[in-house]
Amino acid sequence: MAERRVTVASVVGLHARPAARLAKAAAAAKPLTVTIRKGDGPEVAAASVLGLMTLGAMHGDEVVLAAEGEGAEAVLDDLAALVAAQADHE
């Protein structure tokens, strides 16, 4: 299973717009299933806005994205870039 550790850059954390952007991108990665967790917490589906918001991932927190299958490395690189980007103004 491929993983990426990334620090949340958004000043509001993975809430509202940043969560929606990440969920949309993760959903587009089908047939891969991408999960995300904060610290040693439970994994949630990265394609779920509600799941992302329940993580409670705030600015500066480290999260771990994971996926398995063909193309997982590239998908995780793209999703990690979204989490690491401070795009709060969009």
TrEMBL record:
Q: Does the keyword Ribonucleoprotein apply?
A: no
> Which InterPro entries does the entry mention?
HPr (IPR050399), HPr-like (IPR000032), HPr-like_sf (IPR035895), PTS_HPr_His_P_site (IPR001020)
Cellular component, GO annotation: cytoplasm
Taking every annotated instance into account, which residue ranges of this chain make up the domain HPr?
1-90
BP term (GO), one: phosphoenolpyruvate-dependent sugar phosphotransferase system
A matching Pfam family: PTS-HPr
Q: Where in the cell is it found?
A: Cytoplasm
Give coiled-coil spans as residue ranges. Answer: none
Q: Which UniProt keywords apply?
A: Cytoplasm, Phosphotransferase system
Q: What does this protein do?
A: General (non sugar-specific) component of the phosphoenolpyruvate-dependent sugar phosphotransferase system (sugar PTS). This major carbohydrate active-transport system catalyzes the phosphorylation of incoming sugar substrates concomitantly with their translocation across the cell membrane. The phosphoryl group from phosphoenolpyruvate (PEP) is transferred to the phosphoryl carrier protein HPr by enzyme I. Phospho-HPr then transfers it to the PTS EIIA domain.
Q: Which PANTHER family match?
A: PHOSPHOCARRIER PROTEIN HPR (PTHR33705), PHOSPHOCARRIER PROTEIN NPR (PTHR33705:SF2)
Name-wise, this protein is Phosphocarrier protein HPr
- Tell me which species this is from: Actinoalloteichus hymeniacidonis
